Amino acid sequence: RAAVKEFQMQLIATVGEAVEKLQSKFTLKYESSSAAKLSRLRGIPPTAGKILWAKQMERQVQTLMQRMGDVLGPNWGQHLEGRQLRKAGDELLSKLDARAFFRSWVMDWEKELTSSATTRLHSYPILIQPEGRNGILVAKVNFDEKNELLFREIRHLRWLGFEKDIPRTLSLVSEETMGRYPHAIAIKTALRSYGSVRALITPELEPLVMPQLLAIRECVSEAFDAKLDTSTAVTKKRRVRWDSKEMTEWVTKLADLVSKFEERVEQLLRACDKVEIALDLLERVDYDAARFQGVLKSIQKSIDEMSLSGYADLASWVAVVDDRMGVVLSRRLDTALQSWCKKFKISEEESKEGEVDAPGETIEADTAAGARPDAPKVNIAPIGVEILLRNQEISAVPSVPLVRGMFLEKLHEYMGVVCDLPRPRSGRFEVFDSRTGKASSDGPDEMEETFSYLIHRASANNVSSAYETVEKHMGNLTSFVNQWLAYQTLWDTRVSDVASSAGDDIDQWRSLLLEATGARSALDSSATAAQFGPVSVKYNKVQSQIN
Question: Which of 74, 132, 184, 433 could form a disulfide bond with 427, CB atoms 3.0-4.6 angstroms apart?
Answer without folding.
Answer: 433
